[in-house]
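Q: What structure does this chain adopt?
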Amino acid sequence: MLPERLRRVMELLARLPGVGEKTAQRYALYLAADRKGVAAELGVELAALGANVRPCDRCGNLADVIDGHAVCGVCRDRRREARLLCIVHRVQDLLAIERSGAMRGRYFVLGRLLSPLDGVGPDELPLAELSRRVREDGVSEVILATPPSVDGEATALLLARELAALGVTISRIASGIPHGGDLEFADQVTLGRAIDGRRSIG
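A:
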């Protein structure tokens, strides 16, 4: 009953996380009936997204591409404590911790977690890049803020073992985040307490 192109837009929207079939239909119908130019403006921005936004060259956070380089706002902020480095799984986790206001250091986004069942071993993690970042920035403390899940804990233990040889203090975010939960959905108070109450590993 709907035009083919509109159905295609609905199918694409339904692939987005948290967007079900009914929500996708509501979005697509709104955009099709839009008379304020939102659909056209959204189309232009989406078309330019891949070329103008990419992972930060230093930490993996998302950043604008300027003159062929991508350095995010956190890495550019000279008020940040360069000797304090927080390691997270995803950009969503970085943003969640930033909302807590408890982290004044910088970040390193892994992009994936150690997960033998999914074929992700130590060689698939950016351990060499992380070690180089710790040395170059003179990092004195590393906060392991991987999720409190089986894969997150295994990754934290691996990172603690790899970084121990660099002579840095290694801490793990404290309890408060439910086991198996995602940092992205934790409230600001819980995340703030988790950062403030981090504990040493090893």
